[in-house]
User: Fold these one by one.
Assistant:
Number 1:
Amino acid sequence: MNKVFENFKQYILPFGLNDADFDQLVNYCSIVHFQKGEVVMEAGVKQNAIYFIYKGIIRNYVNKMDGGTSIYGFRIENMLITGYALYNYKNEYRAKLTIDCLEDCELVSIPLQALKFMEEHSKVSHMVGRFLAEAHALELVDYIIDIDTKSLVDRYDNLEKLFPNIHQRVPQHMIASYLGITPVHLSNVKKSRKNAGVQNAYNETPK
Amino acid sequence: MLDPFINFNRFIKQQVEISDAELEVLNKSCDILSLPKGHILIKAGEKQENLYFIVKGIVRNFIDTKEGESKIYNFRIENMQVTGYAPYNYADEIKALVSFQCLEECLFIKVPNLLKSNN
């Protein structure tokens, strides 16, 4: 099997699909390429697929009312891109966030129809959907709660745990946007973190 | 008083196909819980053994911030569920992520998690 689909299989089988289920699912899927800067999904637009990242990194963001952008998260290899569209059946599967590529990306496109087919034909595939939805809900709740409960340094350090090597792959102004601070503030955090030997260097509220 | 399970069962039927017999099994493993205004129903960071359906009343969904204040994310009223996101938090021992407090005298249906894992 193609290496791209092989990785996708490794990712999806632990959710409870068997080989036969997967073979059916993969028949619907295709490999797609996006260049750095290309938009994969646009907030408010109907979607007909979700994506698995074989190679590359993307950001989740929204356009703010003041005209800027606000980054909610990143996705790297072996993660899914949904834009929360597939859970938005009450509003025609429209994406909640905009997603664009921060590097050239190689993705598996998984049509929503394939997921529907799987739900009708496989006893366990609805579990896959449930686990994904729950994991994605928790991720967003954690992001929101962490802003109020964790120090900036803790959130900065946590980012590296969530997305290894992110600082080598993503421009600093995007890290700042994710943390909800200005790039200048971020640079100060990094300096004081270095000086204070990391712990409790910064406890102030962002913005 | 009206049977508190009427709206609960209607809520479930709206989401999934379920037989009356199955509903009866579910109802039997649930309890009715009445709590006074101000009572903390769920505390963030604590393991949860139940989720709740609000028959009557209103709760606030909040966390304690690092500045020592409380921040409200949301409210829940009649015919909504209160979970604290705990049932999805199996990666961390089903601990609640947010706290819930009754803002009025509230009537809940307490739904045990154990039933969920039997499915």
Number 2:
Amino acid sequence: MPLIEVTDLRKSYGSRVAVHGVSFTVERGEIFGILGTNGAGKTTTVECLQGLRRADGGTISVLGLDPVADRAALTRRVGVQLQESRLPAKLRVREALELFASFYPDPADVDVLLDRLGLREHACRSFGKLSGGQKQRVSVALALVGQPELAILDELTTGLDPHARRETWELVEGIRATGVTVLLVTHFMDEAERLCDRVAIFDAGRVVATGTPGGLRQSVNASTLDDAFVSLTRSAR
Amino acid sequence: MTAFAKITATETKLFLRSPFMAVAGLLLPAVLLLAIGAIPGMTKPSEVTGGYRFIDAWVPSLIVMSLAMLALQSIPAAVAAYREQGVLRRLATTPVHPANLLGAQLLIHVVVALAGIGLVLGLADAVYDVPLPKHPVSFALTLVLGTVSMFALGLVAAAVARTARAAGAIAMVAFVPAMFFGGVYLPRPLLPEVVRRIGDYVPPGSQSLQDAWVGTGVQPLQLVVLAAFAVTGTALAARLFRWE
């Protein structure tokens, strides 16, 4: 059984249709990319997966659970990094990890996590004083502190410099190596090509293509995923 | 430690790391009490204040000030900031509901407000011989209703504001009247009769506090109005509050 199964998901805000019949599956142990430009319906889809929003139609199964009806059970098994979510500026890194660890029945060891994410030397620094890359590492650490089976990472490297982006990519590969399935939401094609086993390309609330980055390139004779993305989303317009 | 206890401990640390509000709510009323008391004439009975000393008439206003700063300035900004920063939303994806964070904030602010009020009462008694409230039960009842109504109004502001800045601005709508009618800007005995009569019914009920204090007996209608503010405000805040 797939870890995530989305069938004909629909969601509107008033008269604006955000998600227009989206279907895809994510297998256990893969890094699955949700690709698309801003407003393509990526974040709405992910919010429905997390149970933060109630879908208007279609079915969603995450770890065999209904995100809305079984939200309590789901939150214990899914770790989340949200786009544009900050921590209080004066909260220290270790305090944040210890706080979030107290939310879960079987949390990761905070010291082990600090080492793993290279945050040991920053453990006593305030969140507000960290660099962009360090902040992202903290938010990844918070997503992992509950020892989740699935990690949902939304726009993880937006706003990071090239070095910090590459470090973050290594981190994501490290997460998968520990057996955690990763759902990566991004609009960076190089990131998806480097990290993702499979991707779903979103455009205007629909999935226009699903497959491996290599397979999608070949399907439209493109040399990069970037070119493939442009060609696939253009033909859908 | 339960998640709520852990959140409360962490929030307390954060509260103390930005001590401006803590200091303002806890110490400013006490400092003002000492400053006003040091002015000659403030501690002598006066006809303007109906035979009481000015300082006797002003202590309830200091309670108003403590509650107004914490309930109508500090907590709306803090809670709206958590929404603005996405902290409430982030918590919603964990097994712990963001209501725990709101509860921790309320607990901390109420404790600081009561500590500030306790400090004013203690100092007024010790330094200026302002006797403790003559009707402690009705004083406590008024204080509970006043505290609930003020924090409910503060949370209504936090509920409808998208940003911390907006929360502060919205809360001003309640903050300024509470301070004005509560006699913080101008002592209540000096306010025009009509303003004073309106002020009798404005949270957190400084006239009722005063009446309970000097023992003339609290007007039931004033308490009923205060209770109505508390109930309506709480219901409105609960209805309007968005966790995201």
